[in-house]
Specification:
The protein has 84 residues and is an alpha+beta fold. 26% of the residues lie in helices and 27% in strands. It contains one helix and three strands; from the N terminus they run βββα. The chain has a three-stranded antiparallel β-sheet. A hairpin with a 2-residue loop joins strand 2 and strand 3. The protein is globular and about 45 Å long. The model has no long low-confidence stretch (mean pLDDT 89).
């Protein structure tokens, strides 16, 4: 998904804690080749707007984070760098 020229590259900075009670739901928009992902808790909802390439980037970052967490818990030193 391309950013319209009239929009800034980022609009807000948000910290988000995900707990077992947090609802995470995706809604596809096939005609636009994108999805929205709502992360909802007692404090409100944060919505991610992701084009297809961004879905892959987010998945890669989360997979890398999970692998690094496991490696570090097992005493393996891991380099943390950009996944995508």
């Amino acid at each position: 998904m391309s950013r319209p020229a009239f929009l800034p590259s980022s609009t807000v900075s948000v910290n988000l804690h995900v707990y077992e009670t947090t609802i995470v739901a995706a809604r596809p928009y096939p005609a636009e080749d994108r999805v929205t992902v709502d992360v909802t808790g007692s404090g409100g909802t944060v919505t991610l707007y992701l084009g297809r390439p961004d879905i892959g980037r987010l998945r890669a970052v989360l997979e890398q984070a999970e692998h690094e967490l496991t490696d570090q818990q097992n005493g393996v030193r891991a380099f943390s760098g950009p996944a995508a």
